[in-house]
Write a structure and sequence with these properties.
single chain, 433 residues, mainly alpha, two-stranded antiparallel sheet, 18 helices, 4 strands, 3% strand
Length: 433
């Protein structure tokens, strides 16, 4: 431990929280002026990758050598294969510039997550008195975003709300963020706050309760069917896994009481009825057209990374025009054909397999809290293989969640380096006295 810890180490949890907050916020559109939004997104996303890299370099400068290796690496290798195929698709893409832009944004977030994990594990190994809990960091990083939208809904409703269906429906999100994407963030935050609440630490009980309330408010204001279903599903799974019988009984009672409201909100929302729900609000006809009229023209390798047609939009004979497929698996099929779809499905399989191998891990609930909202969102919106969004960022965190472990064998040089580190940095209590 350090005799006199640097400032960044004493505040490392808040620094990592702030980095993640800015990284997520970088996916929002802060203004309708395109050039300003682009500058903001580049600075916030690439900038945070630079900052997290700087933190890793600072840790190495203190004498922290790399003690990590990757195990169960198929999920990582398949994702790299997916990125490799996407990079190769520049050569046949129907819009190489757009494909390249989307690819580099996806690759950049992948690098960010990899370095972020290395920093977290390095801190937890060398400075365990500053232990970083990803559940706490993610909850703290996403909560302020929900608060901003709640306050904005009252202070600037014309900016934070979006009119849909010719003004018949008004949903929170505005032009800042797709309401369903915002709903996904809320369900994720609420689930993580519940996980934090279950830990029953006195200092954090009030905070996760406020976070859950904020998440529920956002879910109502966004009117996102998929996000509400995802949140209820996560909470149901986490409660059933709990050993608290009172909590399980409370869940059953609340489910019975909330059923009428949920049916009205989810199925009969705005008079849409069962027919609208079964058609996935018009998505099923669009997907059918993509299969019958779109992919048959480029079945093996698709139209190029994040492209679904020869032109910017795809329009079937009897469907609306669309720039994206509203389903991440349909998106990867159109982008990279059946070859890409196979790689994507296998990548998801091995990521989930890593979870089942580590169900006893302390981060098992963290995996569920991220996986369910991101995967549900993937069936109706951009998802994990779609255009750049923070769902991709969260999925990349799940890819790396269970693959790092401490190396069993260190070289003599590395062992000597660790001994020098231990000699240089004595016990923190003695050093700070």
């Amino acid at each position: 431990m350090l005799k006199k810890e640097p400032y960044f180490l004493r505040n490392i949890e808040w620094i990592l929280t702030l980095i993640l907050f800015i990284k997520i916020a970088g996916y929002f559109s802060i203004t309708d002026i395109k050039i300003i939004t682009q500058i903001f997104k580049v600075i916030s996303r690439v900038g945070m990758t630079g900052v997290i890299l700087l933190l890793l370099m600072k840790l190495k400068a203190l004498g922290c050598i790399n003690i990590l290796q990757i195990r169960n690496s198929m999920s990582v290798l398949l994702y790299l294969l997916y990125l490799g195929l996407g990079f190769a698709s520049f050569t046949w893409s129907t819009d190489p510039k757009y494909s390249a832009l989307q690819w580099f944004m996806t690759f950049e977030s992948f690098v960010f997550v990899y370095i972020y994990f290395k920093v977290v594990y390095t801190i937890n190994h060398y400075f365990d008195h500053h232990f970083i809990d990803l559940v706490k960091v993610f909850t703290k990083a996403t909560f302020p975003i929900l608060v901003i939208f709640i306050v904005g809904s009252f202070a600037l409703p014309e900016f934070f709300y979006r009119e849909m269906r010719g003004g018949e429906e008004i949903r929170l999100g505005g032009w800042i963020m797709n309401p369903n994407e915002l709903g996904m963030l809320a369900s994720l935050n609420g689930a993580l706050a519940y996980v934090l609440l279950e830990k029953k630490t006195a200092k954090t009980q009030l905070y996760p309760i406020l976070s859950i309330i904020a998440a529920l408010v956002i879910l109502v204001l966004t009117s996102s069917r998929s996000s509400l279903i995802g949140f209820l599903l996560i909470i149901g799974i986490l409660v059933l896994q709990s050993e608290n019988k009172k909590l399980k009984i409370s869940l059953i009672v609340l489910t019975v009481l909330a059923a009428p409201f949920a049916i009205k909100t989810i199925i009969f929302k705005d008079g849409g009825g069962v027919e609208e729900v079964l058609s996935m609000t018009g998505r099923l006809p669009f997907w059918t057209a993509l299969l019958n009229e779109g992919i048959v023209k480029e079945p093996f390798f698709g139209y190029g990374f994040m492209r679904i047609n020869y032109t910017e939009y795809f329009q079937g004979l009897n469907t609306y025009p669309g720039k994206m497929t509203h389903n991440t698996f349909m998106q990867i099929l159109m982008n990279l054909g059946f070859v890409g779809l196979f790689i994507g499905l296998m990548q998801v399989f091995f990521t989930v397999k890593n979870y089942f191998k580590n169900r006893s891990d302390s981060y098992a609930s963290f995996f569920i809290a991220l996986f369910i909202p991101v995967m549900i969102n993937s069936f109706t919106e951009f998802g994990i293989f779609g255009d750049a969004n923070y769902g991709i960022l969260f999925w990349q965190f799940l890819i790396f969640l269970f693959v790092f472990e401490k190396r069993a064998h260190l070289t003599s040089l590395e062992k000597a380096s660790i001994k020098r580190f231990e000699k240089r940095f004595k016990d923190s209590q003695n050093g700070n006295s």
